[in-house]
C-alpha cells in the first residue's frame, strides 16, 4: 500500500504541464513575458480539445498531437514514452494510469517528435491534493517533498496565473533509468474542494516542445 501511495503521488506530481503573470523569466539565455492561461474561446479546427465534463479542465492539443491510453496501449512508443517499460511494477503503474483516466485525466503525445521509441508527451488531471492541502504554499511544499522520489534536478518553482487563477509553474530535469534525459514543465493550480489541477509536459533534453506555451495557455481548470 505504501509503494502504491508513493507511486500515485509521483504520478500526480508528474501530471502531469505558464510563465509568471506580468513577470519575466529567463529560458536558455532569452527572456520572455507571458501570462499562463490567457487564451480564451473555443478550440479552432486545427486543435483537438480534451477534458471537459467531469474532468475539471479543458486543454487544446495542437494539430498532430494524439490522445493515448497508456493503460492499454501496447505500442513500444507509448510504453517507452510514459516509462511503463522500465517501471519496477508496470502493472501497478498502468492501473494507476487507468484510475487517473477514469477520473477524467488525459494523456497525449506528439508522434512527429518521436526519436526511437520516445516522444514529447503530456498528462493532465484534477485530483485530490492529499493531506497537505491544495493551497499554493501546500502545492509548493508537496512538489519539493516529492522531487527527490522522481529524480528531479534543478527544480524551479514560480508563481503564475492559470486561467485567471493563482497557480505555480514547475520546471526540472531528470535522467530516467533507461538513459533518457528529460526536461519537464508542470502547471499546478488549486481546484474546488480538496483538489488540484495539474498539467505536465515532458520532452527529451535538447528537443524542446515547440507548442509548449500554446498548450499551457489553453489549459483551463474549471
Give a written overview of the molecule:
With 222 residues, the chain is of the alpha+beta class. It is 22% helix and 34% strand. A seven-stranded antiparallel β-sheet has the order 5-6-7-11-10-9-8, sandwiched between helices. The protein has a three-stranded antiparallel β-sheet with strand order 3-4-12. A two-stranded antiparallel sheet has the order 1-2.
SSE diagram, text form:
Elements: H1 2-13, E1 24-27, E2 30-33, E3 48-51, E4 57-61, E5 66-68, H2 76-81, H3 90-102, E6 106-109, E7 121-128, H4 136-146, E8 153-162, E9 165-175, E10 181-190, E11 195-204, H5 212-218, E12 220-221
Antiparallel strand pairs: 1-2, 3-4, 4-12, 5-6, 6-7, 7-11, 8-9, 9-10, 10-11
Helix pairs in contact: 1-3
Per DSSP, the total helix count is 5
Report the mean per-residue pLDDT as an integer: 83
Residue share in helix: 10-25%
Q: How far from one another are the termini?
A: 31 Å
Structural class: alpha+beta
Residue runs with pLDDT of under 50 for 5 or more positions: 1-43
- Outline, from the CA principal axes? globular
Give the radius of gyration. 16 Å
Going across the major beta sheet, what is the strand order?
5-6-7-11-10-9-8
Provide the β-strand percentage band. Answer: 25-35%
Biggest β-sheet description: 7 strands, antiparallel
Task: Please write the string of helix (H) and strand (E) elements.
Answer: HEEEEEHHEEHEEEEHE
How many DSSP-defined strands?
A: 12
Amino acid at each position: 500500500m505504501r509503494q502504491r501511495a508513493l507511486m500515485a503521488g509521483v504520478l500526480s506530481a508528474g501530471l502531469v504541464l505558464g510563465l509568471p503573470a506580468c513577470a519575466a523569466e529567463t529560458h536558455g539565455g532569452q527572456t520572455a513575458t507571458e501570462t499562463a492561461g490567457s487564451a480564451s474561446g473555443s478550440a479552432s479546427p486545427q486543435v483537438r480539445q480534451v477534458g471537459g465534463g467531469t474532468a475539471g479542465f479543458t486543454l487544446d492539443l495542437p494539430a498532430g498531437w494524439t490522445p493515448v491510453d497508456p493503460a492499454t496501449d501496447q505500442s513500444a512508443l507509448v510504453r517507452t514514452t510514459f516509462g511503463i517499460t522500465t517501471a519496477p511494477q508496470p502493472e501497478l503503474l498502468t492501473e494507476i494510469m487507468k484510475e487517473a483516466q477514469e477520473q477524467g485525466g488525459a494523456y497525449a503525445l506528439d508522434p512527429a517528435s518521436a526519436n526511437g521509441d520516445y516522444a514529447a508527451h503530456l498528462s493532465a488531471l484534477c485530483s485530490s491534493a492529499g493531506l497537505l492541502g491544495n493551497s499554493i504554499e501546500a502545492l509548493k511544499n508537496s512538489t519539493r517533498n516529492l522531487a527527490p522520489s522522481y529524480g528531479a534536478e534543478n527544480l524551479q518553482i514560480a508563481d503564475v496565473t492559470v486561467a485567471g487563477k493563482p497557480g505555480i509553474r514547475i520546471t526540472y530535469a531528470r535522467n530516467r533509468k533507461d538513459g533518457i534525459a528529460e526536461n519537464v514543465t508542470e502547471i499546478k493550480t488549486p481546484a474546488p474542494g480538496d483538489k488540484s489541477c495539474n498539467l505536465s509536459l515532458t520532452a527529451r533534453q535538447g528537443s524542446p516542445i515547440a507548442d509548449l506555451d500554446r498548450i499551457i495557455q489553453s489549459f483551463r481548470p474549471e
